[in-house]
Amino acid sequence: MPTSPRVDDHALAAWTADEAGRVLLDVRRQGLEGRELKDAGDMAAHELLMQMLAEHRPDDAVLSEEEHRGTESRHDRLATDRVWIIDPLDGTREFSEPPRDDWAVHVALWQAGELLAGAVAQPALGMTFHTGEPPVVPPATSSRPRIAVSRSRPPAFVEALAEEIGAELVPMGSAGAKVMSVVRDVADAYVHAGGQYEWDSAAPVAVARAAGLHTSRVDGSPLLYNQVDVRLPDLVVCRAELAEPILAFVREHGTD
Known about the structure:
By secondary structure, the chain is α/β, with parallel strands linked by helices. It has helices at 9-28, 34-56, 65-68, 92-95, 156-165, 175-183, 198-210, 240-253; strands spanning 61-64, 82-90, 104-111, 114-122, 127-130, 146-150, 168-172, 189-192, 214-216, 235-238.
């Protein structure tokens, strides 16, 4: 396991996400395919992140997608002030389809009601975005707004939204990749209402906020983390100028 002197929370989020990404790239080179590759990646990244956080933040709780499936946490996350919210491999489908790059590692820190730090690694791009050095969102280069959507099941209401505001849809994989596409000027918005969990969006939202982007539920209410119910089914991440048109459309038409 990698070793490092004690670092601040922003640097730790970035370092752990980056190291998990390196492990995932190694797994991808082992010649596995399909479900076997997905499971190997999930497990390798999860085990590394849990080991690193146990070593460097032993008093903090962890909420992980993999741990939530059945393994008991070492701390009661609802009784602690600091909780790491991690998704060791966001976009397992895309990870299992080399050379796709739209998958990610999410590491975020929730403290006393707020997302304090976060990092999103996109290992196949060789990029890690984090709150220690917030990314600068480039000026928009597209004449039309671009909305990142699921490759396989873009919500019907987003198609109607795109028509309303004159936008085009940009299909891609993981939630982290979609949010980072807004940070990178590959898209201008990510609008989702098809069901997610806290680990799907915590780190991407932390990075997006640090970059100055709008983040909220689709009804405009705040995104809350470390809740009893870890489902967080919808969100909007977008350039500030698109927030009101998007939220106004949802207020008028809903998401059904």
